[in-house]
Amino acid sequence: AAVVAKYKVPVIIMHNSNDTNYGDIIEDMKAFFFCAIDKALKEGVTPQQIWLDPGVGFGKTEEQNIEVMQRLGELTAYEYPVLLAPSRKRFIGSMLGGLPPEDRDEGTVAACITGVFQGVDMVRVHNVKMHKRALAVADGLLRGE
């Protein structure tokens, strides 16, 4: 946080845990984020520098990843922009019958559109051209952009 404050650069706070035992996963994630945000603000990071990343695929079971995707709107409701990085993740492969990572792009498009629909501000993907086109249409249909 001190380095981020010193150089006035953006920072992405990604949720991750060594344990997949959550009460309410979104409430636990909010507590994690608020603790990390508090630490950053105390070091001099401004709110405008902070992005949140739900950490899909990190410290969560497949079922928990799906729940996080379904409830993203509960995280995007706050003042901080949200980055979503579901690209080719294992839960997508499982939902598609066990496809390998290189065959998960269509599933990633669906995950990204799910995120955009719930207010996600940025996505990180492998197949940029495909997602740029798909999300341009989704933005136009869902947000009028």
Description:
With 145 residues, the chain is mostly helical. The model has no long low-confidence stretch (mean pLDDT 96). Helix 6 runs parallel beside helix 7. The strands form two sheets. The protein has a two-stranded parallel sheet. Strands 3-4 form a two-stranded parallel sheet. It is globular and about 45 Å long. It has a single domain, classed as Dihydropteroate synthase-like (TIM Barrel, Alpha-Beta Barrel). The protein is built from seven helices and four strands, in the order αβαβααβααβα. The termini are far apart.
Short summary of the structure?
By secondary structure, the chain is mostly helical. Helices cover 49% and strands 8% of the residues.
What is the CATH superfamily label?
A: Dihydropteroate synthase-like
- Largest sheet, order of strands side by side? 1-2
CATH hierarchy class name: Alpha Beta
Order of helices and strands: HEHEHHEHHEH
Query: Based on DSSP secondary structure assignment, what is the total number of beta strands?
Result: 4
Described by strand count, sense and barrel closure, the largest sheet is: 2 strands, parallel
- Kindly report how far apart the N and C termini lie: 34 Å
Overall mean pLDDT: 96
- Kindly give the count of domains: 1
CATH architecture descriptor text: Alpha-Beta Barrel
Number of helices: 7
Fill in the CATH topology. TIM Barrel
What low-confidence regions span 5 or more consecutive residues with pLDDT below 50? none
Classification by helices and strands: mainly alpha
Rounded to an integer in angstroms, the radius of gyration calculated over CA atoms is: 16 Å
Shape: globular
Fraction in helix: 40-55%
Residue fraction in strands:
5-15%
